[in-house]
Amino acid sequence: MTTTVIAAVAVISAALMLVAHRRNRLTARCRDVLRPHAERYVIEKRWLEHWSRSPEEFETRWRQQLREHYRTHVPGRDRILVTPGDFERALNAEFAGLLNREIESWTFLDRASVSSAAFSRLVARCLKHLDWTVLPQGTDRREGAHLILENGRNRVAAHLHHAATEIECRAVQEVVAAARREACNVACIVTNGRIGGAVRTLAAAFEVRLLHCSQLDQIGAAAHGVAHAADPDLRLAA
Questions:
Q1: Distance (Å, rounded) from C-alpha 168 to C-alpha 151?
Q2: pTM above the 0.90 mark?
């Protein structure tokens, strides 16, 4: 083997080692970036699996979500080294550290809704899966209800509250006014946080239901059961 060939092999080997080192560093950085989002993504995956009509539909939807996450977290300049397969393996590695926790006690709405608007969209989507007809209302809190829901003879005025702020007693009065205005037989407040004592007292006086977002299946008439956010067996993840 000539000196030229040896030198060429050495250069190629060094280049491959540099590429491998760079790829490993980028993959490690990808895991660092994904770590704060891992809880939300693993619950999102379970939520998709639960609501998909078939394993094939779940696989298609989850692949679409993975592509979106890949484009979000991997800059364009790094994609030549960090492939979608590398990204998925990095995400699964982060999932592995979560699976031993009590993920079943969380809800998709608790962890995936990062804003009031996102929370409202997710609640509406889940209610549609529960066979409610969702009539969107304005987002102005003075209107008293974020959603008007219909299911058979039930008509519900629902005030949706994201845990970023405390629920005010005014929310109870507003949703009651909305229920009367929209001819609803149920008024409720749905939150992914905790509900204070003053709001619970006022809600009881006006017969307003207080529900954690994990209790959406109980949003209907009394026959479905009414559970309040103060119930001792309610698992609050927020």
A1: 28
A2: no
